[in-house]
Automatic annotation (TrEMBL):
Substrate binds at residues 60-62, 221. Its cofactor is Mg(2+). Mg(2+) binds at residues 25, 27, 246. One of its GO terms (molecular function) is metal ion binding. The lineage of its organism: Eukaryota, Metazoa, Spiralia, Lophotrochozoa, Annelida. GO terms for cellular component: cytoplasm. This is Phosphoglycolate phosphatase. Divalent metal ions. Mg(2+) is the most effective. Belongs to the HAD-like hydrolase superfamily. Keywords: Hydrolase, Magnesium, Metal-binding.
């Protein structure tokens, strides 16, 4: 059972020796929510870990960006990375649809250009991203929407243009029990900067689930499709991998679900009392979200490495 231990001088060497691979969340760990600047000292900490021979992967549930776009952002914020080191929920979803499901047909997407870009890269035909062009027509006119018989898969992600028309369209396709129903992620909320919170992708997915009476297969954290991609495509060993994140229900739950260990940092979504509350719970679901370790910030790991002369 995870115990949510503070990393300090007495246990940091044992911690560092226990893994070869790092999966790190981005928002709230490497940079502050929607901010365009890194958390001070964290880029240097990542460089220290790489100098120690640790492999680093950037793992995000943000489906609005492709891997290539994430590389641009990471490099702008002083994180030296490549596309091979980025695994986002949009990428994980495209890979799951193409390789795990072997789906070759057309896809209706409720989502953003990030999902469209990853499906383009995977060679999967799709439509639906962007404004629906309905222009305020009446409710009865919905029945005039043409349903494409080639669509046997609906993918739902974050979509600023999500509305009743898109909900209706997804419902029509998913009324066919053979139509696949996939979600990039189900995060309940998004950081808006300045302490603000926005509804997350989970709100959109839940609307489609409720209207169809179906449950989506979710590809992003904390679910196994994303972990499977890291194992199959990048050869990581979960037992020698640490997941660093700022959320319990995605980052820490992924660690438990995939047989890894989790390091919670307190620079983002979760407060320490949230984690400690779970340790007192008898719920299995709660136990699977408890971090193995925690730190106020990832920069504190860099300070411990330096103080202990480990690099």
């Amino acid at each position: 059972m995870a115990r949510c231990l503070l990393l300090e001088k007495s246990n940091v060497k044992e911690f560092l020796d226990s893994f070869d691979t790092i999966l790190t969340d981005c928002d709230g760990v490497l940079w502050e929510g929607a901010a365009d600047y890194p958390i001070p000292g964290v880029p240097e900490t990542i460089q220290q870990l790489k100098k120690m021979g640790k492999r680093v992967f950037y793992v995000s549930n943000n489906s609005t960006k492709t891997r290539a776009e994430y590389v641009v952002k990471c490099q702008k914020l002083q994180y030296d990375t490549t596309e091979e080191e980025v695994v986002g929920s949009a990428y994980a979803t495209a890979q799951y649809v193409k390789h795990t499901l072997g789906y070759k047909g057309k896809v209706y997407i409720i989502g953003s250009s990030g999902i469209a870009g990853e499906f383009d890269a995977a060679g999967i035909p799709h439509f639906g991203v962007g404004e629906d062009g309905w222009n305020g027509r009446g409710l009865r006119d919905l029945l005039d929407i043409k349903i494409d018989p080639e669509v046997k898969c609906v993918v739902v992600g974050f979509d600023l243009h999500f509305n009743y028309v898109k909900l209706f369209t997804a419902q029509q396709y998913l009324s066919d029990p053979e139509c696949l129903f996939i979600a990039t992620n189900t995060d309940s909320a998004l950081p808006a900067g300045g302490g603000g919170i926005l509804p997350g992708t989970g709100a959109i997915v839940s609307a489609v689930e409720f209207s169809t009476g179906r449950q989506a297969t979710v590809c992003g954290k904390p679910h196994n499709p994303l972990g499977d991609i890291l194992v199959q495509q990048h050869g990581i060993n979960p037992k020698r991998t640490i997941m660093i994140g700022d959320r319990l229900d995605t980052d820490m739950a992924l660690a438990h679900n995939c047989g890894m260990r989790g390091l919670l940092v307190l620079t983002g979504f979760t407060k320490l009392e949230d984690a400690r509350r779970l340790t007192a719970s008898n719920s299995i679901a709660h136990q699977k979200q408890i971090p193995h370790y925690y730190l106020p910030s990832l920069v504190d790991l860099g300070k411990l490495i330096t103080e202990c002369g480990l690099v």
